[in-house]
């Protein structure tokens, strides 16, 4: 039951955390990332101060901060991928890779599938394919967002890097053995430092930052943090590979928000119906992944 609760919380929070920034979608992506991670750091500091810093040591903090740096680097790669390929094509590359790498790491590094029966492994593979198929349907339905004139090679490499990074950033946290409450604070430090560096390096080429960006970014930060705590507890409950795979169901919530609230694409259009079909398949696959027993 705990796994179901954390799964739902993660998928909802990570599926909506970018929605508050929709009115500011033309703002500089580097500064969006900076303000979001600053908000995440402030929230993580408040939670850590409330609960106390007991159990936090350099041995636990350094791996968590490294995970934050990997997350931030993946974010930079994702921004470049979107600028070169468009959101739909870029997400269509990194979302399946997130699922693939999380399953690989869970099996190879944490022996999560050791002792599983052939039937359970077969059902798991089918569920993953079902979820990936749904995600790809959603992405293809929104292919009209793809930009033209970008460098496909650079965009492809950037999307591959984002898929690898976001499918792996949690590994140092899991290796450290720290609880989610302990690791969230140094993780946030690493994320903030990782987004600060591009802002400093590109200071002379910065675009005007809307004055309302910090407020919207704080709302996004709160939603992302909620999803992060949920994902860490979910991975403790059902395993790294399955847990992070289920978390990719956030694409389903994001697609529903796009169709129902932003009319992107309109609900009654062929693309809108394709999105809904993809949502159904991906949600069914995610539920099966979470419910399969060894």
Keywords for this structure?
single chain; 294 residues; mainly alpha; globular
Structural overview:
With 294 residues, this protein is mostly helical. The protein has one domain (2-20, 29-291). The protein has helices at residues 2-16, 29-51, 58-85, 87-108, 118-141, 152-166, 171-176, 180-201, 213-238, 240-247, 250-260, 270-291. The two termini are 17 Å apart.
Q: What would a concise description of this structure say?
A:
With 294 residues, the protein is mainly α. The chain contains 12 helices and no strands. It has one domain.
Write the layout of secondary structure elements.
Blueprint (H helix, E strand, L loop, with lengths): L1 H15 L12 H23 L6 H28 L1 H22 L9 H24 L10 H15 L4 H6 L3 H22 L11 H26 L1 H8 L2 H11 L9 H22 L3
Helix pairs in contact: 1-9, 1-11, 2-8, 2-9, 3-4, 3-6, 3-8, 4-5, 4-6, 4-10, 5-12, 9-10, 10-12, 11-12
Secondary structural class: mainly alpha
Portion of residues in helices? over 70%
- How many helices? 12
Order of helices and strands: HHHHHHHHHHHH
Measured between the Cα atoms of the first and last residue, the distance is 17 Å
Low-confidence stretches: none
- Tell me how many strands there are: 0
Give the percentage of residues in beta strands.
under 5%
Radius of gyration: 19 Å
What is the averaged pLDDT score?
A: 80
What does the largest sheet look like? none
What is the count of distinct domains? Answer: 1
Shape: globular
Oligomer: single chain
